[in-house]
Amino acid sequence: MRSKMLFSLSLLAIFVGVALCVDEDTVLKLTVLHHSDMHGWLYGHKHESNYNADYGDYQALLNHVDDYFTTEADTTLEDYLVYDSGDFLQGTGLSDATSPPGIDIIEVMNMVDFDGTTIGNHELGLPESVDYLWDKIHNEGYLPSFVTSNTDYVNTDFVDEPETFAKKYTCGQTTNTGHKFMTVGFMYYKETQHDFGNTIVTDPLVSVGQPWLQAAIDECEPEFVIATCHISYQDQDVFTGIKAAITAITGDIPTVFLTGHTHWWTAGNCDTGEVDEDGVEIEDPNCVYAEPGAYYRYIGRVELELARDADSGNMYIQQWSHPR
Ligand SMILES: [Zn+2]
Fold first, then answer.
1. Where residue 208 sits, what CATH number does that domain have?
2. Taking a C-beta distance cutoff of 8 angstroms, is the pair 86, 130 a contact?
3. pLDDT, tens only, 3-34
4. What mean pLDDT is predicted for residues 307-316?
5. Where does the signal peptide begin and end (predicted)?
6. Domains contained in the chain, number
7. How far is the C-alpha of 323 from the C-alpha of 23, rounded, in Å?
8. Which domain holds residue 275?
9. How far is the CA of 233 from the centre of ligand 1 (A)?
């Protein structure tokens, strides 16, 4: 119990501490909370006292965070968003022990007010669970922020022709400060690993060449983009390509890739795909990736300070961190 309280209180203490030292050029201080690869660990790790927070504790933490941003934060400057990056099924056994697997997990996830979540290979590999999830999303309004920009649903028992599994994108506006943003969601693509029966995954680099991206940007008019991706942080060429496709339409705007699948804790600036004269990869200062581990051992937290370029009028990432 004590460790759970420390977990919540220390995070809130950090929010307050950071809020006091924001650069004067900053127009938005954005906290992005992120988790991925939960794999059914709704009940915490009861035999490990440092990791025993369960899904209810997570929601309790989000309630505290929401209280802070509503009542204590600088509402002219600070906002937060919450994301998941897929692979919430298959893991603990007990939480999958329904027919189809994952009914309880989907029920609990639907109670969390995500700004975006997406699909992973452990969902796609369970066709009956995919049918169940599709039905819940489409017919009962579950998980309204679910985004699958490159995954289509093709089960002809339920649809006449392929359609995007969930929304291809969502438009958002930060609660306190009113900044517009767009959320997209991508599943990794492996040419030899996508015979899941009732879904088709398109290569993300092919997907962003399709007309939907222009339509999404026209509708959302994003000042920044959040991409929740069930893609390894190592697949930098994918992030470089997606960022380039967005930049070609909007000009250079901050883009955050919330990655998953490898269960690693890591973060960095995205590659540009170019090297300097010494052969070293040149990083993109306006593009960040972050992967938050797995099984709710940690909550990923990307802290961004965004300023506005006087010439282009676009936002840019002034500084960022990924504290644990
Ligand atoms: Zn995965």
1. 3.60.21.10
2. no
3. 343 344 445 555 544 444 678 899 999 999 99
4. 96
5. 1-21
6. 1
7. 18
8. 2-321
9. 12
